[in-house]
């Protein structure tokens, strides 16, 4: 009996879309990455500059990208924009990287983060609790399966099953979780500002806010290194890997273009509103960190004040602040908040990403079976394919390494996509544009320049060059794949 197919349902309103944007952006990063950023740049002023610069780049990208979203409010989002601005090869390279690393790697990493923080409440969930282990397989490598990996996989499978039931089920969960964590972040900020002020930390953090020093990572025996101007530029670029990762996924709402009410307006407004909200919250959260904990600490210290932001246990800066404000119960409160945050982030990312693979399959550039909707009107097969690969990344244990070069690929394709605005202004000057990029051409150029500088820094900086070049190689590997498996479809009309 043939599988019954449904059709896309326009069920996502502006509020739903904003919740998908904010919920997908806010995962575990904001609660952790400031520790590494503070070690890279070494001062409170430059820590805030990193987050401000990240906010400027993200907002500039969102308000520029909105022109393409309003022109092509189709399922597939960025894949469709690249196809229309350039060709199917460029679009395929993006979709290839999205499936292999960008979307699935993030899903796996966020799932593992959820499981690790669950371990604060239920200690059985721990990377040390190995449920299964093989002998040496290749060299000294042995496969291990921990309770953390088990819970991460169960989470991904469960969220996928919910979203396969229809877009309304997925958006309901997103609305509840996104609203909850926005309120919780606001309470963290208010509580930190009213109850967490630490006079010693304020004095230490703000008496000299611009002296840039690079501090060693935990476990590395080295002296702090004063940074020259060129060294500071490189340090800011490397530090922004964490802040940009924490601010990413704002574009995911575009993947669901045909499921959005009044998409020409809603897509642009939701990306602008969502990124503005998240940017403001992130900056305020970092101000709270600086008011509650000293920036410079020691990895050997046994107190929160002694470890500071730089060497907070497992980089859990937000947990350290919560413990400072609430005492021992703060760790539990923060673990619950991060569990809600990571669950909501994965729901938004899982909901959105499958639509891109569906669009690729409709163009004949991906497994044909994924170009189908189930009776509930969602691309269930694409959802389960995404789930399978993300779970394999959880099993492989390679998700953390993959994320080291995810951001290079992400920003590279953002740059190519924003340049597409200029391409389409030239090649399709009379095409309907319900929204024109605000500040064009200045703001899109600013985005392209800043984001390109970031990519160059990642390619040349000693700590990031290897992973960034591997990321570029991963993208390039998509070229022979396209010609091996997609060449016979390359000249067929794009299915709208």
Automatic annotation (TrEMBL):
Chief location category: membrane
Gene3D superfamilies named in the record: Amino acid/polyamine transporter I
Its membrane topology: Multi-pass membrane protein
GO-annotated cellular components: membrane
Protein origin, superkingdom: Bacteria
Keyword set, alphabetical order: Membrane, Transmembrane, Transmembrane helix
GO molecular function: L-amino acid transmembrane transporter activity
Transmembrane segments: 12-33, 45-68, 89-122, 142-162, 182-202, 222-245, 266-292, 325-345, 405-425, 437-461, 467-486
Stated name of the protein: APA family basic amino acid/polyamine antiporter
Organism: Hymenobacter chitinivorans DSM 11115
């Amino acid at each position: 009996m043939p599988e019954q197919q449904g059709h896309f349902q326009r069920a996502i309103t502006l509020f739903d879309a904003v919740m998908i944007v904010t919920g997908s952006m806010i995962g575990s990063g904001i609660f952790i990455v400031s520790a590494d950023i503070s070690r890279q740049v070494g001062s409170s002023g430059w820590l805030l500059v990193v987050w401000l610069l990240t906010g400027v780049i993200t907002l500039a990208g969102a308000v520029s990208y909105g022109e393409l979203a309003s022109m092509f409010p189709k399922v597939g989002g960025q894949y469709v924009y690249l196809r229309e601005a350039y060709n199917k090869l460029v679009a395929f390279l993006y979709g290839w990287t999205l499936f292999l690393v960008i979307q699935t790697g993030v899903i796996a990493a966020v799932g593992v983060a959820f499981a690790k923080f669950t371990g604060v409440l239920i200690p059985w969930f721990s990377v040390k609790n190995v449920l299964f282990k093989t002998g040496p397989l290749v060299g000294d490598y042995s496969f291990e399966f921990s309770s953390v990996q088990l819970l991460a996989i169960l989470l991904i499978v469960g969220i996928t099953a919910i979203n396969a039931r229809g877009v309304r089920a997925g958006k309901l969960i997103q609305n509840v979780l996104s609203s909850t964590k926005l309120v919780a972040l606001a309470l963290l900020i208010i509580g930190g500002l009213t109850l967490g002020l630490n006079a010693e930390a304020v004095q230490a953090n703000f008496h000299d806010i611009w002296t840039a020093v690079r501090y060693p990572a935990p476990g590395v025996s080295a002296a702090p290194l004063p940074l020259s101007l060129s060294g500071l530029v490189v340090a800011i670029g490397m530090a922004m890997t964490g802040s940009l990762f924490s601010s990413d996924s704002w574009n995911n709402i575009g993947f669901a273009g045909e499921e959005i009410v009044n998409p020409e307006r809603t897509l642009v407004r939701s990306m602008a509103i969502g990124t503005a909200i998240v940017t403001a919250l992130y900056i305020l959260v970092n101000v709270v960190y600086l008011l509650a904990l000293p920036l410079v600490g020691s990895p050997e210290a046994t107190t929160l004040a002694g470890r500071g932001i730089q060497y907070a246990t497992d980089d859990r800066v937000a947990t350290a602040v919560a413990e400072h404000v609430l005492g021992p119960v703060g760790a539990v409160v923060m673990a619950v908040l991060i569990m809600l945050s990571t669950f909501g982030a994965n729901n938004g990312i899982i909901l959105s990403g499958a639509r891109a693979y569906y669009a690729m399959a409709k163009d004949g550039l991906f497994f044909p079976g994924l170009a189908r909707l189930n009776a509930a009107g969602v691309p269930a097969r694409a959802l389960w394919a995404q789930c399978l690969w993300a779970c394999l990344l959880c099993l492989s244990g390679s998700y953390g390494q993959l994320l080291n070069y995810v951001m290079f690929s992400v920003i590279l394709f953002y740059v190519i996509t924003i340049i597409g605005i200029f391409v389409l202004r030239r090649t399709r000057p009379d095409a309907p544009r319900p929204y024109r990029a605000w500040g064009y051409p200045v703001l899109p150029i600013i985005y392209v320049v800043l984001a390109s500088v970031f990519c160059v820094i990642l390619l040349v900086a000693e700590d990031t060059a290897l992973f960034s070049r591997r990321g570029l190689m991963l993208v390039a590997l998509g070229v022979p794949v396209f010609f091996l498996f997609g060449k016979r479809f390359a000249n067929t009309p794009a299915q709208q």
